[in-house]
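Appendix B. One record, verbatim.
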Amino acid sequence: MTWGWDRLGPVSGLAAVLGWLLGVLVIEGVGNTPDDNATAANVLQYFEDDETSLYVGGILFFLGSALLIWFGSSLRAAIGERGGGDRIASIVFGSAVATSVLSMSFVAPQFGGAFAANESEAPLAPEAAQALWFAGDGFFVATEFAAASLLAATAVAILATRLLPVWLAWLSLLIAALLVIPPIGWAGLIFGVPLWVLITSVLLWRRGEQAAIPRETTATP
C-alpha cells in the first residue's frame, strides 16, 4: 500500500494545477470581470450578476489549492525517504500548506462578495464591494513569498539528496527569486509555480514508478 501511494500521491500536484486552471477560466472567462478602472458600483454589480461563476470558479480553485497540501505531503515523504532530514522536509510541507491557504485567500474575498451581494439580508455597499475586490491583491503578494519558500526549500532538499534531477533545483531557485521581486513576482506565481508543480509531480511519479519495479520483480514467483 505504501509504494502504491508513493506512485499515485504526486498526481495530486497535477490535479491541483487543473483545479487552479479551471477555477480561473470559470471566474475570468464566464463572468464579466471588472477592469482596473472599474468603479465601486461596477464591482458591486459584478458581484450581483456573476454569483454563479464566482461560486463555481471559487470552489474549483479552492479544491486545487487544497490538493497542493497533498502534493506537499508526497514531496515531504520522498525527501524523508532519501534522508533529507526532518527540518527541511518540514519546511517544504509547511510552505506548501501556507501557499495553499494564502492562494485560497486571494479568491475568497470575491467569493464572499458574491455571497454578501446576493444572499445576505444586509445590503452590500459599493465601497465595501470595492474593498473586497482589492483585498485579494494583498493575499496574492503573500502567496508569492510562501511559494518562494516552498520552491527554495525543495531546491535545497534536491541538492542535498539528489531526490530529483539537479536542474530542477536550479529552476526552483530561479522561480523562487522571481517570486520575491515585487514588480515581476506575479509572473512567477501565475506561470512559474503551476509549471513547477507540474514538472515536479511528473518527476515524483516517475521516481515512484522506477522504485516500484524492483519490488514488483521480487514479488513475482
